[in-house]
């Protein structure tokens, strides 16, 4: 699939910024969304402002698209450790309701609100893709060691929503797909506290991650809609 126009929500993060640059390099027009709207000056890139905590700001941002909606939308928002340092729980004894609610909001509800306003605008008579950055640890079947309760739960819920969106989208947008993407362990601020003792070759540069994910997306078809794929293009079990 060759995209003409893309929208990246979360363009200030490590993966989001790399996706913007990779798409611009391919000649795709890119709308890059962040809380501040500050973006690198790249040809073909137009910044926009949205706040994941403010649904109205998402609605305003997409309303400006008018008839020129993108054929690729990627939600690259997400959190593993909260700004106050609260990180993934290693035991259920560490569960905190406020921290859990915040992680679920940022990783699940926020992307769902973006989908709410974006999916109806995707082209109905041509191929289009909606993708959200998920994680392998959101797989219930693949869970062997437990822990990371809030993060796992938020990604599992996101994966369920993606399946729901795909089913509904398939009724009106026959050529469109909605998928989750697992980027692997990427050298970003999100993964920095957990990079110690990683095996050689497991840490991926953001630029390489963006290339991997876009290559996977290009190979997918509407028959793949509703599933989650890793950076190698392998389907992750629910």
Q: TL;DR?
A:
Helices cover 34% and strands 18% of the residues. Helix 1 crosses helix 5 and helix 3 packs parallel to helix 4. The chain has 238 residues and is an alpha/beta fold.
Features:
single chain; 238 residues; alpha/beta; two-stranded parallel ribbon; 5 helices; globular
Overview of the molecule:
With 238 residues, the chain is an alpha/beta fold. The protein is 34% helix and 18% strand. It has 5 helices and 10 strands. The strands form 2 sheets. An 8-stranded mixed sheet has the order 3-2-1-4-5-6-9-10, with helices on both faces. Helix 1 crosses helix 5 and helix 2 packs parallel to helix 3. The longest helix is centred in the last third of the chain and has 24 residues. The chain is globular, with a radius of gyration of 17 Å. It starts with a strand and ends with a strand.
SS elements, strand count? 10
Which value, in Å, is the CA radius of gyration? 17 Å
- Uncertain runs: none
Approximately how much beta-strand content do the residues carry? Answer: 15-25%
Largest sheet: 8 strands, mixed
Instruction: Please give the oligomerization state of what you see.
Output: single chain
